[in-house]
Amino acid sequence: MLLTSRQVGGSPHTDDDSLSMTTPALKVGELAARTGVSVRTLHHYDEIGLLRPSRRSESGHRLYGPADVQRLLRIRALVQLQFSLEQIAACLRQQDI
Fold this sequence. Notes:
By secondary structure, the chain is mainly alpha-helical. Helix content is 49%, strand content 7%.
């Protein structure tokens, strides 16, 4: 089951405490559990540059912030529409301009 952005963490402009700008970032396993995306898929997205974590812990763990969660939700929506990963990357690049 995929969660909405509000269920995963909401917008930084809401009262939702689950993942606000002041809470610690999510580790890869936490993000996977909250979104239904496997850890392996998140690692793959990082390896191909589709979803890079916004930072890493001192010990090298991937840490995902609210913007990363939003990007993942966009990726998952495009996957559901049967876009290829290459097409998704192109769409996201255009959004980033």
